[in-house]
Design a protein that fits this description.
Chain lengths: 477, 477
């Protein structure tokens, strides 16, 4: 990297497009949790796809690595440069245009730097729904959602970001532009490039815009808070609900009692919606496009049957939007509450839904053997088989042992996931945090296929090195 | 290719696994329409994934090209060998096991040679639904459905085969096995290999098994036959229906008057459900998992409103399953009826749904200019933006001119598709029939990306050469 890099970048993107002052650079060099911190040769903010292309051409010519960055809200360090000071951070925060909403096609075309909440609002303004819904939606960008194949609470009904993305515009590592912004439900003219770029975490190119699927607006909701004896009951309740209400089941979020306790202790204004003691809780939501549907009745009748079948130990329906919002606060407060309790060891795993009950029992027992008293803050999108499986220190401990033995304890979780043919990264991606663990757990043939794809699309290995593939390497030899 | 190839293959797969007698080979060397005919060095029918791997290892070592074949029901010649007699046809017709149904996970694991109708039946036996539905479902196989990213009449609600496939087992061109049979709704541990193999038409490896998504069974249906003034009304009606009934809209099939006329003339037992003349027709179906839903009332009320808004010129509801089946016969009879009318020129295109009205008007006018009297047998999955846009000869013509000028007329259709940013292959794939046309119409950057992927996964270019990429070549140099 030569000293004139910022000047040469400024020639390409203008003075507003290059950040040099250390205090202005700071927010681009650390993730929102403060867990990953790096240095950069330059922070560049192109104002158009053509400017992104110009930056990548320059970096390719000079052999400079590029770290694409959206809202920087990732949990795995995928958007932060390393400590060498030789990498360029390419922020999409000036690519903020909503290029268009096509109501009859139920699509919208948005640039990578559009914040998820703004994309949701644009759909809403057109009388439609963009369903992706995440805790960080006020800061996370569409480009980051695409790069990480984002999940969240609406996957059960609408799928992950890959299912919501019909087409992409991508600047390739050599600066060429792939103009793949097609808004088509069906297109079998070759390999699925859109699906390949979704979830590739900036390691194959820079996503600059996307065509997103939109859905009919939801006009009627019913929300319930449910006490459950065990995870097997939760799995059976999902089955019963999907059988009764089909696609109207919009959310099914499971929380262990420890998760709820943590929220009640630390998040102001929350209160326990149910009397008595329950081992597990579920937040259940139905939604319908038809405003006249008697969803409350349908949900109440189904929960009554579930009570009779001993799947549910108690349940309460929200009777107002404010009550529903209070129930959602219990679910959404877990991250904040857990941070208030000190160190924790986080995992984001999937197993087949049918294996969830045994996974929870077996993994919990193994961890209790390894660290007696370990607290299991287990919650998540159980309808997708996805648990946020977080460990807190035993009561009275300061968490020092938990942190010191993190690798050992995570290995117990990941070995258990592997025994159920699950995934060690359900929705957060690999980034830098999990790339090495993935390399250990993936089948060697799968890893070789991934290396071949990386080498085919980024032969010089300049795009976000160290994310997805820990050594940043495509196929050797 | 050496003369002892059949013997060496027999050593790998046993005597039942190699077809040598010309009369037994015949059905493997020609597609079901008789449009593509080839020769083969051998036809091999491995009985297990390990045997597929052994065959591919041998072919890789000897530099022999392999043409994977499922039910051989494709429309683009993707499963038929060329005329050289040097290629090996690898049929999956002995890979027929349904390895398992996981009811709580709503998945089933089936081998590539399982016929689609048998997969549907296995789901039904478990009280669930595998929604993929095609005219050829009695012969088409799951492997072929995966290879071509099959579509059909249920895409509107459930998506194409890619959306229905959670994991795959694939034998790679060098004989290694990728064990990707994960039944997970979320898995962000790297690039989307499953999505890449879906739709790759056997050019990157041989799919031997798949994990498929299952859905709650549909217990209540309502079906209507609707007369419409134009395509714009059809697009507006879909919008109205999705707004009112959301995901319960299971099918919306459009047919031009000429399509219906063809069926009424040639398919025995069919009759016109509506009095009077209408320019376009739609077959509309709602489905619900809840048996008690008053779907007929909902559909009737929505169609009443559509009549009031002049979107619909007349409509009739099926009052029995037999009546609904009769309506579906009108839709499903088009292919058969068109074959009875002599030569036709078929296209399978998508444009954004919002562009369908103008596409139909403009393309029809251009074709009428080029060949006055040309008959437009236009029908398809309009909720996906997908039209089967078929041309018949002018009345009184024998079709000689239509056939002689096929390239010119298809170019008019494809140029029009391109002007709406559409796709020249919506759901049939490229095979050998459309690979050259795709190479002409795709952006050069997109084509280069496809070549790089081909070269990365099949560097020797031995897998189904000529399908997808017309010259069978990955990246040159």
């Amino acid at each position: 990297v030569t000293a004139d890099l910022p000047v040469r970048l400024r020639d390409l993107v203008g003075p507003a497009g290059v950040v040099t002052a250390p205090d202005q650079q700071a927010s681009y060099l650390v993730d929102w949790r403060g867990a990953y911190r790096g240095r950069a040769a330059a922070v560049v903010r192109p104002g158009s796809t053509a400017e992104v292309a110009a930056v990548l051409r320059l970096c390719a010519a000079e052999g400079i690595a590029v770290v694409p960055q959206g809202g920087n809200t990732g949990l795995c360090g995928g958007s932060v440069p390393d400590g060498s000071g030789t990498q360029v951070v390419l922020s999409t925060d000036r690519l903020r245009a909503i290029r268009g909403v096509d109501r009859a096609n139920r699509t919208m075309t948005v640039e990578a730097g559009v914040v998820l909440a703004d994309a949701q609002a644009a759909a809403r303004d057109a009388g439609l729904l963009f369903p992706l819904s995440l805790g960080s939606e006020g800061s996370a960008t569409i480009g980051g959602n695409v790069a990480t194949n984002a999940g969240g609470t609406a996957v059960l009904r609408y799928g992950t970001m890959r299912a919501l993305t019909l087409g992409l515009e991508v600047v390739l590592p050599d600066g060429r532009i792939w103009p793949g912004l097609r808004g088509l439900r069906k297109d079998n003219t070759g390999y699925d490039l859109t699906g390949l770029f979704v979830g590739s975490e900036g390691t194959l190119g820079v996503v600059t815009a996307a065509v997103l699927r939109l859905f009919p607006a939801i006009r009627r909701r019913a929300t319930a808070w449910v006490g459950l004896p065990d995870v097997a009951a939760a799995v059976a309740l999902i089955d019963l609900l999907q059988d009764r209400v089909g696609d109207r089941l919009s959310a099914f979020e499971l929380m262990s009692r420890e998760s709820v306790r943590t929220v009640l202790d630390h998040v102001p204004g929350t209160r326990d919606p149910l009397p008595g003691q329950h081992a597990w809780f579920a937040l259940v939501e139905l939604g319908d496009t038809a405003a006249g549907e008697p969803l409350d009745d349908v949900l109440a009748a189904t929960l009554d049957d579930a009570l009779d079948a001993d799947l549910v130990s108690d349940a309460v329906l929200a009777t107002s939007p404010a009550q529903a919002a209070a129930l959602w606060r219990l679910r959404e407060g877990v991250s904040e509450a857990q941070n208030a309790e000190g160190p924790s060891l986080k995992h984001d795993v999937t197993v087949p839904i049918s294996c969830l009950p045994e996974f929870v029992v077996r993994t919990g027992a193994a961890l209790a053997d390894a660290l007696p008293g370990v607290r299991l803050v287990t919650y998540g999108h159980v309808g997708d088989g996805n648990l946020h499986y977080n460990l807190g220190p035993p009561r009275g401990s300061d968490g020092g042992e938990l942190v010191a033995r993190a690798d050992e304890l995570s290995a117990i979780v990941y070995d258990s996931v592997a025994s159920f043919a699950g995934s060690i990264s359900a929705e957060h991606g690999l980034g830098r945090a999990k790339a090495a663990a993935a390399a250990r757990s993936l089948d060697p043939v799968e890893l070789d296929l991934m290396r071949r794809l990386k080498a085919a699309l980024d032969p010089a290995g300049l795009m976000n090195p160290g994310a997805v593939l820990a050594d940043g390497q495509g196929r050797s030899g």
